[in-house]
Amino acid sequence: MSSRLILHIGAPKCGSTYVQNLMLRNTDSLQTCGILYPTPAGSHPGNGRAVQTLTETNLQEWFGQAATVFLSHEDLFSSAVQAKHLPQLAREQGI
How far apart are CA 25 and CA 68, in angstroms? Predict the structure, then answer.
């Protein structure tokens, strides 16, 4: 099975927090389907800020748990430059 990284980049006030809360509430069910929604840091339900500091080690750990990793955060909409390294990193990892 191939590894997939899904980035959910919603503009503020478009329902992103609703999607993030759904993902959090259904973490166990999602994991049985091969989907990982990594636990967000802080009180916001979005976990996409992890993109800023994403490393090969993070990806290996996450993809050791599931075939699909779902990251979501509104800040990715206004700060896409924070994920500038992601395409190269994903390519190197075969994602």
Answer: 17
